[in-house]
TrEMBL record, chains A, B, C, D:
Pfam family, one: HbpS-like
SUPFAM superfamilies in alphabetical order: GlcG-like
Coiled-coil residue windows: none
Domain of life: Bacteria
Organism: Alsobacter ponti
Protein name: Heme-binding protein
């Protein structure tokens, strides 16, 4: 069993931001939550819009709320919009059903937390999240 | 760098209302927010409906929240409705994704605030916002 | 019967700010609501804190909610704190029970709206409100 | 004028945590907000309780909302409890009126943001915030 430590979360933030910078992405906000949904580490690049960080957190929180990477929530929102709409009143927290909210698991599949990123396209946000999780050698689950 | 002063905000309100009157628009509510999303100046013409001012504020606040003029949010609401629906629970403030919420920038592109107008058609609301911003020689970004 | 017009509200804002400036007050936020509780005119001096305008609005809205100038609400909060605490969950809007929220009446006593001011001491906030209302020759009721 | 950059915010977080560790404090949550009230950097030490981070954010956000270090809000809560209670419904965000929410200013006095810390005693939380702000050579205003 792997403890999910602040150092892991901070490395994910740093590597996700580094991925965005070297890829020429728009300024990113990166939120890393632990398995309880509590914020563990966060950074917003200079120039992010007023609520960009809340969107990042909503991608990660929504993923944890449902146990599904937010790409899966995005697909569900297309297939069953009334279900995803209902979730907003249910989850007692933000839920943003677009790609970029990625579950973090250890090698045994145990859920450790989630990272949510917003700022560029959803696909690019997700790519930055995957880069961050790869840097700590944990398993990323972006949803399908 | 340009400081965004109360006198700028009050001139935007006055000129937007003047534009609406001379164009024969319905009564307008005009909200000018600074870059923090804090209301700086506001006026509601005589005869505006009970929550018209909240709609005006929601156009401006939504634009600042996302860093996009509300015309762009209107387009996104058509293309990705589940994303814009989710934002309502995320932005910790009002967000009205129709034209009429216009970002205000200085000559260097720095974001100073936003104006939101509601009362007539969305296109006319936006035109009044543009007239107000032009009067203080700042740059308007209504979104695309 | 007197109609309460935007020009009245704008004059109240301008004169209240002028009173604060010539008196050397801290930067003021001034909110004028009509009898429905809808915002009619507003200005925040340069340098007001992030939520100062919400406090100003809460003084005025609370006064309208109860039909009492906010100085009376302040007294009630001392005498019956549980009652004023309960109001926060009841009035469906902000209520700030300190002086500076002043009802506006016409010569016949008919309620036209309220002005709320925040930024300096409560007594000074109220004095600026009284100055604004005097300038339009309407009757101020600050509560007792 | 000093821009308040992510590197400043991240250094404040790192130095505040380092201060807490070397002082033997309980695990701290540290939130740094910019002048808009938007989260810029955050970290929660391993072992912080479920909502500790929200308390940290509430100390910083409350300070920005009122333009006063949270030690001043703590004093106000003792002197005028009904006023501080009312603020909870007004500020459209969290407000925690105990020491540990410290305003950050540049050398000219311009407000750049705030840091909020929670985890140990309020006095120790505040001391960690001061250590963080000192490390970036900015001016701390904890309130009085």
């Amino acid at each position: 069993m792997t403890d999910f430590l602040l150092t892991h979360a901070q490395t994910i933030v740093a590597e996700a931001l580094a991925h965005g910078r070297k890829s020429g992405f728009q300024p990113l906000a990166v939120a890393v939550l632990d398995a309880r949904g509590a914020l563990k580490a966060f950074a917003a690049e200079d120039g992010t819009s007023l609520k960009r960080g809340e969107i990042a957190r909503g991608k990660a929180f929504g993923a944890l709320a449902m146990g599904l990477g937010s790409r899966a929530l995005h697909r569900m929102a297309g297939e069953r919009p009334h279900f995803v709409e209902a979730l907003h009143g249910v989850v007692e927290g933000p839920l943003v059903p677009v790609p970029g909210g990625v579950l973090i698991r250890d090698a045994s599949g145990r859920l450790l937390g989630a990272v949510g990123i917003s700022g560029d396209t959803s696909d690019n946000d997700e790519a930055a999240a995957l880069a961050g999780i790869a840097a700590v050698k944990l398993t990323a689950d972006p949803g399908q």
